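Exercise: predict the structure of this protein bound to 4'-deoxy-4'-aminopyridoxal-5'-phosphate.
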Amino acid sequence: MEQTILPYCYFNKQIVPSENATLSIASQSVQYGMTCFAGIRGYKREGSIRIFRLEDHFNRLKNGAKIMGWKIEESYTSFKSAITELVIKNRPDGDFYLRPFLYTTSKAVAPYFVDPHYQIGAYLAPLGHYFDPSQGLKLTFSSWRKFSDASLPTKAKAGGCYINSALATTDAKKAGFDEALMLDQQGYVVEASIANIIVVYRDKIFIPSVGEAVLDGITMRTMVQLLKESGKEILYQPIDRSMVYSADELLLTGTVVQVRFADSVDHRPIGKPGRGPLAAFLQEKFASLIDQKPLPKPEWITEIELP
Ligand code: PMP
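Solution:
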């Protein structure tokens, strides 16, 4: 199914019709995946738009550029005003995904960062639930390993790195599963192909530590804060495959997936049938961050009034 995007995007420091925003066939971003991107959710509520943790996503994007050695001129203030203008121009009629990204127009026929001046672009795509919130996910361990930070930066959402996710997700979907779980180079379970993981094992909450081969997920940071505020203890310890098969609950967290629970992994049921208590707690808390008035965490929401 062809993905539709909203009619206007931000490209070359201007708002332009999306079909006019084109990169050369020879751009290094096209040829070598030399991009960094962000993925942010926007929610349409009562005539206004609520964007979740815009500044944190912008900071992670800038940090990705720093890891790569790229220079980004845009400040958060100018980025936020461009995004505000873009949202108002598009007038989304439902929830959407906001995809800011860094690109180069360099046409150098070699994979090296010739021009460190990367530009920022952004577009919007309609996005409701990626996975049905009431259904548990059917997961599998991918035969592709998550790349180690010794080979590629795990803390940057660099375009080229996502070939790893694409291979894993495609194999999982072809085999009839919803998503793939990734083992690292040592065989520990680190994340899903596009989401972080939380494992409940013998009543304890386990999360891989940030220093492992994981993306420093903004949804996961949110989960950690919600868990800490409710006095729940988190163990940052390596998680192995048989712990996952034996888990009471397995949760996926990420901007696209939001908070979802696993029904099974490799056809082995996870915990009791249906949604477990931690999934219920985190899904409800997470939904309240967007929907509850007054907003429980206004510092995480950029509210844009649609004129
Ligand atoms: N891991 C990977 C590999 C991802 O692509 C994503 C999605 N950005 C996540 C984890 C979750 O991160 P976030 O909560 O910031 O979307």
